[in-house]
Specification:
By secondary structure, the chain is an alpha/beta fold. The protein folds into three domains: 240 residues, Glutamine Phosphoribosylpyrophosphate, subunit 1, domain 1, CATH 3.60.20.10; 208 residues, Glucose-6-phosphate isomerase like protein, domain 1 (Rossmann fold, 3-Layer(aba) Sandwich), CATH 3.40.50; 146 residues, Rossmann fold. The strands form five sheets. It has an eight-stranded antiparallel beta sheet, with helices on one face. Strands 5-6-7-8-12-13 form a six-stranded antiparallel beta sheet. It binds 5-amino-5-deoxy-1-O-phosphono-D-mannitol (M6R). The site of 5-amino-5-deoxy-1-O-phosphono-D-mannitol has 16 residues, from helix 9 and helix 16.
C-alpha cells in the first residue's frame, strides 16, 4: 500500500529523483512521506505527515542535496497514526542506517518487547522500526548489510517489501528485500534504482527486474546482486516493460480518474483486437489460455476478487453461466480464504485483479490451488505475482491505472470476462459459430458506443444530475440481473471518492429492507436496460416514487426514463454488454459529484490503490 523508492548513483544528487519517484507512487499511500540520504558517513533524513508537498517544502532549502544514495517512502498507515514520527524512513539507535517498508510485520510487538528488554529505545509506533534495530544489531556484530538484512528478516513473520540504506566503510550501501508486496529494480550506467511499482522506474529504464518472494538484492551503481533468503545467488532476468510514459501523466485532464474514464474506448479495443477470430466466431488467448481441452474439463468456476474487481467478477458469473453453461461461484477473496471452502473436482479458481498484488486475492487463490483447483487470472499487470502464479492468464490491456478509483481496469475486466465466456461457450458447444460471430460483432460495436457516452451530450446530462443532487442525503443504486453488480459498482465509486453515503442493491431486494430508507432527499439511481427485467425495474421505480424518493434512471429502457425524475440514456447493446455501457455514466456521476464537493478525486481519504496487506 505504501510506495518505496531507492537510488544509488555513481555521482550526482539523488533528492530530486527520489521526490519524482514518490510523486509517481503517491497514489499507493499518501498520509505521510519521507526520504533518507547517505552523506559524509551518516544517514540524514526528512519526513512529514501529510501530502508529499509538505516534504518538498521541508527540503526546499536543499539541506539534503549532494548525496549519491537515498531511499524514499510515501505511506498508508497500518501501525501508528500518520504523524511525523511514524512517517518512514525509520532509523536504528544511531545515524548509520535507515529503512522504508511496505507491508506488515506480524510479530513486531513481540520483537519490540524483546528489544526494549535489552535497552533499545523506540521513537515511533510503527512495526517497521523493529527491523531497523535488528539490522543495526547484526551490523554491530560484524555482518555486511545483505547478511544483516537476511538474518533480521529471518526473525520476522509477515509480508513486506523493504529497502535499507546504510553507510559502510566504502560509502553508501543499498539493500532491498521482498516477501509479498512487489519490488522492482533497474540499472543504468549511472546508477541502480528500486521501486515498489514499475512506474517509479520508467524514467530510468524499460528493462525491469522483478524480485521474487524471499529475494534480497544488493544495489550498487550499475549493478544488482540478488540472493535467496539463505544467501544463495539467483539470477532474475530483466523483463521489458512497454507502457509509454504518456500513460502515467494526466495529459489535458484535471484528474487521472477522468483521463482513465476517457481512455475506455481504447482499452476495450486493446483488450480484444488481437484475440478476435471473426471467421470462427471465437476468441483465442495468448499462451493457449482456455483452450478447448481445458475449457471442456471445467466443472465449476470459482471467482475470487476484491472491491471493483469483485463487481467485475459478479458480472462474469452471469456471462459464464449464461453463455457457457458452467456453474460459477463468486466470493470476496477475504471471505473465501477464511471460510473453509469446499471445491468440487475440476474447479478453476479465476482471480480478477487490476494490480495482481492484492494480498487477499493472492492468498485466496493459493488456498484454492491447495484444495485442488487449477488457477486462472484476469489481470492488468503482466509482471505481477498473480500472473506469475496462475496456470492460465488473460491480460487486460488497460495500461497503468493511477486514479485510486478503478474505472478503465473494471471495463477491461468485464470485457475480458466476456471473451472468456464466449471462448468457453464455443469450446463446449453452447455457442455455435454464427452466434459467436454475433457476439463478436456486438463487442466490436461497443467501443464506438462508449465513445458516444463520453461525448458532451451525455457528459453534460450527467453533470446536470450531479449539480442537482450533489448535496443529497444519500444515494441508493438499484439494478437487476447482470446489471445488479453495476449498482454495486456505481455505489462504490460514489462513496469512495465523494464520501457520500451510497448503497448498491439488487432491485428485487429493495422491499426486503432498504425501502425503509426511502424518503424525500434520498436519490435512487435505477440501472435499467431494455430486456425481460426492465418491467421489474420500472415497478421498483414506482415503489420509490410512491414513497417520496427521487429516481434517476440510467440505461436503455425508455419506459424507465419516462417515469423517472431525471434520466441518462445509454445506447442499446446486448444484455451481456449492457453493464459496460451502464457503468460509464455512473463513473462520470461519481466524478462530477466528488468534484462539486471539492474532494481529492485521485487520492481519496483513507484509501490506497493497491491493497498489499490484509
Ligand atoms: O488491484 P485489485 O484489482 O486487486 O484491487 C481490488 C480493489 O482493491 C480495488 O478494485 C478497489 O476496490 C478500488 N479502489 C475501487 O475503485
Amino acid at each position: 500500500m505504501c510506495g518505496i523508492v531507492g537510488t544509488i548513483r555513481v555521482e550526482g544528487s539523488v533528492v530530486k529523483g527520489l521526490i519524482e519517484g514518490l510523486r509517481v507512487l503517491e497514489y499507493r499511500g499518501y498520509d505521510s512521506s519521507g526520504i533518507a540520504v547517505a552523506r559524509n558517513g551518516a544517514v540524514e533524513l526528512e519526513k512529514r505527515a501529510g501530502r508529499l508537498a509538505r516534504l518538498e517544502e521541508a527540503l526546499a532549502d536543499g539541506h539534503l542535496e549532494g548525496a549519491r544514495a537515498g531511499i524514499g517512502h510515501t505511506r498508508w498507515a497500518t501501525h501508528g497514526a500518520p504523524t511525523d514520527a511514524n512517517a518512514h524512513p525509520h532509523t536504528g539507535s544511531d545515524d548509520r542506517l535507515a529503512i522504508v517498508h511496505n507491508g506488515i510485520f506480524e510479530n513486531w510487538l513481540e520483537l519490540k518487547h524483546e528489544l526494549e528488554g535489552e535497552g533499545v529505545r523506540f521513537s515511533s509506533d510503527t512495526d517497521t522500526e523493529v527491523l531497523a534495530h535488528l539490522v543495526e544489531r547484526r551490523r554491530a556484530e560484524g555482518d555486511d548489510l545483505p547478511s544483516a538484512v537476511r538474518a533480521s528478516l529471518a526473525r520476522i513473520r509477515g509480508y513486506y517489501a523493504v529497502a535499507v540504506l546504510s553507510t559502510g566503510a566504502n560509502g553508501p550501501e543499498l539493500v532491498c528485500a521482498r516477501q509479498g508486496p512487489p519490488l522492482a529494480i533497474c540499472t543504468t550506467d549511472e546508477g541502480a534504482y528500486l521501486a515498489s511499482d514499475v512506474l517509479g522506474l520508467l524514467p530510468y529504464s524499460r528493462d525491469i527486474v522483478f524480485l521474487r518472494d524471499g529475494d534480497v538484492a544488493e544495489l550498487t551503481p550499475g549493478a544488482v546482486r540478488i540472493t535467496t533468503k539463505s544467501g544463495a545467488p539467483v539470477e532474475r532476468a530483466p523483463e521489458r516493460f512497454e507502457a509509454d510514459s504518456e500513460a502515467v501523466s494526466k495529459g489535458d485532464f484535471e484528474h487521472f480518474m477522468l483521463k482513465e474514464i476517457h481512455e475506455q474506448p481504447e482499452v476495450i479495443a486493446r483488450t480484444t483486437v488481437d484475440r478476435i477470430r471473426a471467421d470462427a466466431g471465437d476468441f483465442v488467448f495468448e499462451g493457449g489460455a482456455f483452450d478447448d481441452d481445458f475449457a471442456r474439463s471445467i466443472a465449476r468456476v470459482q471467482i475470487i476478487a476484491c472491491g471493483t474487481a469483485l463487481h467485475a467478477g459478479w458480472i462474469a458469473r452471469y456471462m459464464i453461466e449464461g453463455l457457457a453453461g458452467i456453474p460459477v461461484d463468486v466470493d470476496f477473496a477475504s471471505e473465501f480464504r477464511y471460510r473453509n471452502p469446499r471445491l468440487v473436482p475440476d474447479t478453476v479458481a479465476l482471480a480478477i485483479s487490476q494490480s495482481g498484488e492484492t494480498a487477499d486475492t493472492l492468498a485466496a487463490v493459493r488456498l484454492a490451488r491447495e484444495l485442488g483447483a487449477s488457477t486462472a487470472a484476469i489481470c492488468n499487470m503482466a509482471s505481477s505475482t498473480q500472473v506469475r502464479e496462475a496456470d492460465q492468464v488473460v491480460l487486460t490491456h488497460a495500461g497503468p491505472e493511477v486514479g485510486v478509483a478503478s474505472t478503465k481496469a473494471f471495463v477491461a475486466q468485464v470485457v475480458a470476462a466476456y471473451t472468456i465466456a464466449v471462448r468457453l461457450g464455443r469450446a463446449r458447444g453452447t455457442i455455435d459459430r454464427e452466434r459467436g460471430q454475433v457476439l463478436i460483432a456486438e463487442l466490436e460495436a461497443l467501443r464506438a458506443q462508449v465513445q458516444t457516452l463520453l461525448a458532451e451530450r451525455v457528459t453534460g446530462r450527467v453533470l446536470e444530475v450531479a449539480r442537482r443532487y450533489h448535496e443529497a442525503k444519500g444515494f441508493m443504486f438499484l439494478g437487476r440481473g447482470i446489471n445488479f453488480p453495476v449498482a454495486l459498482e456505481g455505489a462504490l465509486k460514489l462513496k469512495e471518492i465523494s464520501y457520500m453515503h451510497a448503497e448498491g442493491y439488487p432491485a428485487g431486494e429493495m422491499k426486503h429492507g432498504p425501502i425503509a430508507l426511502i424518503e424525500p432527499g434520498m436519490i435512487v439511481v435505477a440501472v435499467s436496460s431494455r430486456g425481460p427485467l426492465a418491467e421489474k425495474v420500472r415497478a421498483n421505480i414506482e415503489q420509490v416514487k410512491a414513497r417520496g424518493g427521487v429516481v434517476v434512471s440510467v440505461g436503455s429502457d425508455a419506459g424507465s426514463h419516462a417515469i423517472s425524475d431525471m434520466s441518462i440514456e445509454v445506447p442499446e447493446t446486448s444484455e451481456w454488454l449492457s453493464p459496460i455501457l451502464n457503468t460509464v455514466p455512473l463513473q462520470l456521476l461519481a466524478y462530477d459529484i466528488a468534484h462539486l464537493r471539492g474532494c481529492d478525486i485521485d487520492k481519496p481519504r483513507n484509501l490506497a490503490k493497491s491493497v498489499t496487506v490484509e
